[in-house]
Amino acid sequence: MEKLEVIGSNKLKGKIKISGSKNAALPILAATLLSDKKISLFNLPKVNDIETMILLLKSLGSKIKINKKINSVYIKNSKKINTLASYNLVKKMRAGILVLGPLLAKFGKAKVSLPGGCAIGTRPVDIHLKAFSKLGVKYKISQGYIHARAPKGLIGNSIKFKKLSVGATENLIIASSLAKGKTLLSNCAIEPEIIDLVNFLNKMGCKIKWVGKRSLKIFGTKSLKDLKYKVMPDRIEAGTYMIAAALTEGNLRIINADPKIMKKEIEILKKMGIKIKLKDREISIKGGKNIKKIKLKTSPYPGFPTDLQAQLMVLMCKADGKSEIKETIFENRFMHVSELNRMGAKIKILGNKAFVEGNIKFEGAELMATDLRASVSLILAALTSNKKSIINRVYHLDRGYENIEKKLTNVGAKIKRIL
Ligand code: UD1
After folding, report:
1. Given a cut of 60, is residue 122 above it in pLDDT?
2. Residue nearest to ligand 1 atom 35, measured at CA
3. Which comes out higher in pLDDT, residue 294 or 2?
4. pLDDT-based confidence at residue 332 (cuts at 50, 70, 90)
5. Could you tell which of 165, 308, 333 is best to mutate to test the pocket of ligand 1, judged by most ligand atoms within 8 Å of the CB?
6. Of 21, 329, 352, best ligand 1 pocket probe by most atoms within 8 Å of the beta carbon
């Protein structure tokens, strides 16, 4: 099994180009099932989750041509699609559940495996399912599968999500786009990836309107059109490299990023004493010796993203005192802590809060990656230690970071993949 070897202590200098957003590309790819017109998607990240989604779509009968050179795909579906999304593919990635909405909308039935994904909590799909019932869907769960049918097709309704959920909001936006009549979705998640999905669907001919900060009005349509669409940049990848620059006292230009959708991350890093300059599609970041302690919590957008919690915690370990971070999205998202502590960190967990001692010098160690963002936090810690670290189970990392070794090596890091 592949491992990463990291020898730290180099200041990272130069520029890193940000890839397309994995979490925007996944629902957009799922939404292509709605259409049998020509669709070209650009700026897809070359990561395993995207490959898994493409395999899942192909297993349903989607006709997809991939152009790896320019990170794009061309899709032209026939009218016939298989409606069984098998365990083999959905187990690899929770976003597999996103094919449920488009299959129900287009074909009135679907059998979709209950999803897998990172082991960061129980991650149920009850919010998705309850909302689908409001659109006229009948379902039962048996043998690990959701068996869903909409005998009369989906019928528009008013749905208020009981809790903010990125995936449920996306699934319902996609499904309602072809439902009969009008749907009003309220208490929607408003992550930038959801805005990108809505932009994509509207360009494809759907009729979706924001009618309040967290409310959407969707008029079902059947007339979709050809389109070419470029996926937005990955804000979590950008945030990860910003933290890498801060940690190594480096100086990085993060290009192809969108600072407008990263206001909270930028505000927090500035509060920690990191120097940041912004241009339209570029973030320049300069790390120094004095990092200030901070207290914060993760929360849905526009709050601080849970997907950057593990990375920020590494920076907290270098601050001038005790920091605190409260994880409010997932109940089990501190699995990086025991590995960071093995590297010399002093982090204590109490319920959903982590108390992080500052002024830590990380020691290299042999480490085990446990989920996507936890894996990258171990790389960040290893980049600050002059001893060698070996990170096992890097397949987690490959789910969501394109060419991470190459991007980091290009700016001066010593990191390589070994067997
Ligand atoms: C998405 C992101 C993930 C990010 C998360 C929160 C993708 C592919 N993944 O995941 O990277 O960490 O948003 O920003 O975009 N919940 C329920 N019932 C449900 C659905 C969710 O209880 O039916 C709970 C979850 O367990 C979690 C919370 O709601 O505690 C938020 O989850 P959600 O926003 O749905 O996350 P995902 O869409 O799975």
Report:
1. no
2. 165
3. 294
4. confident
5. 165
6. 329
Rounded to an integer, what distance in angstroms lies between the CA atom of residue 232 and that of residue 196? 7
- In whole angstroms, what is the distance from residue 288 CA to residue 375 CA? 24
* Ligand 1-lining residues (CB < 6 angstroms): 23, 26, 94-95, 121, 123-128, 163, 165-168, 189, 193, 306-307, 329-330
Q: What is the pLDDT of residues 374-408, one digit of tens each?
A: 899 999 999 999 899 999 988 889 999 999 999 99
Give me the amino acid identity at 177.
S
Q: Are strands 353-356 and 347-350 parallel, antiparallel or unpaired?
A: antiparallel
CA of 187 to the centre of ligand 1 (A): 14
Residue 392 CA to ligand 1 center (angstroms) comes to 26
| Spatial distance between the Cα atoms of 168 and 148, rounded to a whole number of angstroms | 16
Q: Crossing angle, helix 235-247 and helix 372-383, to 10 degrees?
A: 20
Distance 118 CA to ligand 1 centre (A): 11
pTM for the model: 0.97
Rounded-to-10 torsion of CA 301, 288, 386, 356: -50
3-state secondary structure of 11: coil
Judge whether 240 and 208 are in contact, CB under 8 Å. no
**Residues recognised as catalytic:** 118
d(CA 312, CA 310): 6
Rg (CA), the chain: 21
Centroid of ligand 1 to alpha carbon of 164 (angstroms):
8
For CA atoms 273, 278, 281, 283, the dihedral sign is negative
**Alpha carbons 267 and 273: distance in angstroms, whole number:** 10
β pairing state of 182-186 and 275-279: unpaired
